[in-house]
Amino acid sequence: MTTFLKLLFRNRLAAVGAVVLAAILLLALITPILPLADPDVTATADRFQRPFSTGHLLGTDHLGRDLLSRLLWGTRLSLAVGIVAALVAATIGSGIGIVAGYFGGRTDNIIMRGVDMLMAFPYILLALAIVAALGPGLMNALIAVAAVNIPFFARNIRGVTVGLAGREFIDAARLAGMGHTRIILTELLPNVLSTIVIAMSTTVGWMILETAGLSFLGLGSQPPQADLGSMLGEARSALITNPHTSVVPGIMIFLIVMSINLLGDGVRDALDPRLRSGALTRPRAVTLVDRRGNVPHADQKGLLNIQQLETQFHVGPRVYRAVNKVSLHVNPGEALGVIGESGSGKSVTALSVMGLVASPPGVITGGAVRYEGEDLLAASYDSLRRKRGNNVAYIFQDPLSTLHPLYRVGDQLIEAIQAHHKVPDAEAKARAIELLKAVRIPNPESRIRNFPHEMSGGMRQRVGIAMALANDPDVIIADEPTTALDVTVQAQILSLLDDLRRERGLAIIFITHDFGVVAQLCDRVAVMYAGRIVEEGPTATILEHPAHPYTKRLMACVPELGGGKRELAAIPGLPPVVSDLPPGCAFAPRCTKATEACQQGEIDLAGTATHTVRCIHPEEELA
Amino acid sequence: MTALKVRDLSKTFPIGGGLLGRARAGVRAVRPMSFEVQTGETLGIVGESGCGKSTLARMLVGLLEPTTGRIEIEDRPLDNADPAAFGKLIQYVFQDPVSSLNPRKTIKQIMEAPLKRLYGLDAEERMGRIREIFASVNLREEFLDRYPHEFSGGQAQRIGIARALAAAPRIIILDEPVSALDVSVQAQVLNLLAGLREEFNLTYLFISHDLAVVEAVSDRIMVLYFGSVVEIGPAEEVFKTPRHPYTKLLADSAPVVGRALSAPEQKDSELPDPLNPPTGCAFAGRCPRATERCLTAEPELKPLGEHQLAACHHPLEG
Amino acid sequence: MGAYILKRLISAVPVLLGITIIVFLIMAMIPGDPATAILGSYATPENVEKLNRDLGLDQPLINRYFIWLGNMLTGDFGRSYSLNRPVLDEILDRFNATLILAGVSFVMCSVLGILAGVVSATRQYGFADKAITFIVLIGISVPSFFLGMMMILLFAVNLRLLPVSGMYAIYGGGDLPDLARHLIMPATALAVVATGVIARLSRSAMLEVLRQDYIRTARAKGVDERRVIMGHALRAAMVSIIPVLGIQAGFVLSGSVYIEIVFQWPGVGRMLVDAILKRDIILVQGGVVFVAGAYVFFNIVVDVAQSLLDPRIKT
């Protein structure tokens, strides 16, 4: 709660809204004890007094009634009616929504059809119909406004509930013996409460406006009783001669609704966890580069050479060192594996190469990425764009989310080609068909007209590979390209990648967490842990003689097919969080060989020209 | 003793059907299947996406009502789909450990639910049980006042296991319990599970898509394809000497250190369309050994070798 | 595509039936003797008797519904007692005016709203974003009827730029430029709130889409940033913007009731409010069913547009 308030008031606009609204609420509350004139006593002699006239701070209306008094009493009434309507609509609507969302199936179907019927009306028609039937009056206007807002709550809350009802903790609650009512009240309600509050805070303003509107039309509060809407409605006939009688209530409605909206936005931002983490920021076209130290000098290693790369995520006051002085290179025709567990920084390393790390929060803070001698981190956007896909191409993990759902796969391929080569459409299309043939998709001529959702996972990933091949790049960076696929499909994709690189002399950087995949595909492998490379060398050497204790023990954790039933080796403890790394070796707290020296100061990569390890007590001496 | 006996269990999901819900057709997620699991045994269940393994699991714990068939736990039939009745006998450990814990409840509240609802224990008895269970799964008691988001995947999965144990079930269904975890943490959880099985004389059904993991923890393995059991047999034999061509395809596809990279032989890589299922053997379209007969006649599970069963007209030699 | 449109048209039938049932039930809530209540102060014994015969008010509720529905299907919406003419004639006379006002306003708010949202999203936290956010905030907080009144004061009374009210000038009007001059203020006042809502939603839809993996894919293959935003991102964002346009059309239609009153626009909204105040229930009933029906068809158009954009919508 305190964090909620802190978050809320960090938003200055929300704080302004809160202050204005609090002031208005306070005024409305103390209205009965203020020394005001009776709002309903007419004095035709004093009609249309200007503001600041004696005895009438805001002047008088067409019947000579004190405007200040009517304004405050009217505000009181409008607020009360709006808030009650919001509470009624929220309670009934949310109840309907939760029941429909939780039970699903036919219950849901019938309820939501009914709600859809109500939503088929432009809302005011329904309100007018209700008022027409019940007769004009403030109470009836309240009922009408509440009724037309019920579908809004029902829909919103149902949507959230459906998502929650499919979550596993609801299943777990049923297995723990809870009944439906208890699950709704103790498991679902606490989780949808924030949505209800958000929906309320964004609609209270509306409902005050709507009741004011009905009163404005003469269908709400009846004379002589005043709410803000009826004051405005009565003043309309004198708009041109005495505008102040209209301006006063109008501005009050505006202030109330505006302050509620400001506060409501603040509440939503503070309660919605997605917004809270700042995730809704727009990623820039290129990762922000802010190199503090010296840029490493070019050395003539490999086709693509990553030198001392540092990529960080700046989230609030925290700095996550996702990639920490990583150096890697890949030669033409070579397959380099980068292996590590989640959070080891392997994917961020891969995305940093072409500036594809989402930024904010990502920042490249050091190092260089050299392609044909040029430092890509210093390149202009245009020059980087020309190399993306053309010289260095990517294959991503989940082929469903990485292909655009609304474009045909053929058009996505053609776009990849035409982004770099001005070729006529017909030629690009022919090339797209050729590409699909190259990745062994049957019937490519008809397949290019497919949308991604019309293909299976394996086929989609083939399209992803075809797209990477579109401009004959020199380097392909494959970021866990088979993790989302079934094992039989994975085998086909891996063998396809292997064939392609041999046919075309491609350099591949293959990011994975699977030793089996590395062993089958890669010539060299780099092992990452907590943002650093801990060991690098030829695949066969590392698999047979791992030098870093982490590599050795990680490999022991991986069960291999054909070993039968057995006890598996495990590494106790957890990988460290990269926002708070210990000095020295990040693996030391989990390592059986660790000594005091391991937890002090920087440990360098050392070893032979081909096989290096970052360890003081390696499993194998590298000489 | 037989811990779990399943007879002709199947599930058909209706598709289409309007407000009045008269479905025209259905997707047969699980075709009628029968099997038994002995007390203290771990039965591994493997299959790729769409094979029906999760549907099967949800039926076994009463979260989903079967279309046909019977479930017996320790010779007591459980016909009604009531999770509360199932809960004391059979529990479930979910794939996504964090999503299986209510984010708005403390670990203590989560742990207490089964003790209160299923056994009606009072506060003191509940705390005693929780202490015992936490000791068994190596969790510290200070975790009890925290909320789920404060835990890593491995810890959260231990809490999920602890909650399942709190119901004192005879059988636990483990639905991909380690696939959301990193390799180094995965082994911790698997070893913990093995220890608990001994300690409480539990029976496991271990569902996974990872053949090596399943082989490492199971006594017997059941291979599912397109809603049917295609092969069942002892863990050490199923992948070493597969009888069904699909099992062999799976085994050959798994990336293995020291085996050259090659796509195993198959005709087509696509699964059959569930809305328009083929007659005969569902695997025939991909099977290199398929003949005319496979396209027309559905193969029955039949014994092959000493302990293995496979549903194939042209099984592989042992 | 043809099959989809047909399907949507067929699915509109139960919705239209539901609308008539809801309206009928609401009207059945009227307490007391229905005929007298419907006719209100205009009731004469002959009228009451005639109405009872017309609507079969002596019959059970369900029969009355089907008689009413059957009459409407043959184009007989009943007779307005306050205006003494057939309800449908009156509605048709006035619906054009509402359609022009709401239509122009809807086009304004859609175009301006989406434009503002896209600019806002692409310049997130920049000056344009902050300015748009601020204007939008004011726009969605000011009641349209108050805004309309202030516009009259400023542009018609003080600056004398535009006519105060009405649809055509009384003398020498009636052509298109005249209509346009009369339309500027009401259409703008009506569009302001919806523009704000659409701008907000477009902004967040764009931001949501820009974080998706397929945007990263487009960038990774070297697509130019302008094309990434105006092509890949906007197209995907439209999938969530279009349904909101449908909802906002309902809000514009609703708001037109206030605006028609403020600007004395001879539309259906003003007719409905007058009818309620005169307790002319038959006219209210007919007007509500007619406009709601029109809105249902508009929403079919929205759905079809959505299905053209999103290939995943098949059934």
TrEMBL record, chain A:
Residues 304-555 form the ABC transporter domain. It comes from the Bacteria. The chain crosses the membrane at residues 12-34, 77-103, 115-135. It is found in: Cell inner membrane; Cell membrane. It holds the Pfam family ABC_tran. The keyword Membrane applies. Residues 75-264 form the ABC transmembrane type-1 domain. Keywords: ATP-binding, Cell membrane, Membrane, Nucleotide-binding, Transmembrane, Transmembrane helix, Transport. PANTHER family: DIPEPTIDE TRANSPORT ATP-BINDING PROTEIN DPPD (PTHR43297:SF2), OLIGOPEPTIDE TRANSPORT ATP-BINDING PROTEIN APPD (PTHR43297). This is Peptide ABC transporter permease. It comes from Sinisalibacter aestuarii.
UniProtKB/TrEMBL annotation, chain B:
Keywords: ATP-binding, Nucleotide-binding, Transport. Its main location: membrane. The keyword Transport applies. It holds the Pfam family ABC_tran. It is a peripheral membrane protein. It is found in: Cell inner membrane. SUPFAM superfamilies: P-loop containing nucleoside triphosphate hydrolases. It comes from the Bacteria. InterPro entries: AAA+_ATPase, ABC_transp_ATP-bind, ABC_transporter-like_ATP-bd, ABC_transporter-like_CS, Oligopep_ABC_C, P-loop_NTPase. Residues 4-251 form the ABC transporter domain. Belongs to the ABC transporter superfamily. This is ABC transporter domain-containing protein.
TrEMBL record, chain C:
SUPFAM superfamilies: MetI-like. Residues 95-301 form the ABC transmembrane type-1 domain. Its main location: membrane. It is found in: Cell membrane. Keywords: Cell membrane, Membrane, Transmembrane, Transmembrane helix, Transport. The chain crosses the membrane at residues 12-30, 95-119, 131-159, 179-201, 236-261, 281-302. It holds the Pfam family BPD_transp_1. It is a multi-pass membrane protein. InterPro entries: BPD_transp_1_N, MetI-like, MetI-like_sf. The keyword Ubl conjugation does not apply. PROSITE patterns: ABC_TM1. Belongs to the binding-protein-dependent transport system permease family. This is Glutathione ABC transporter permease. It comes from Sinisalibacter aestuarii.
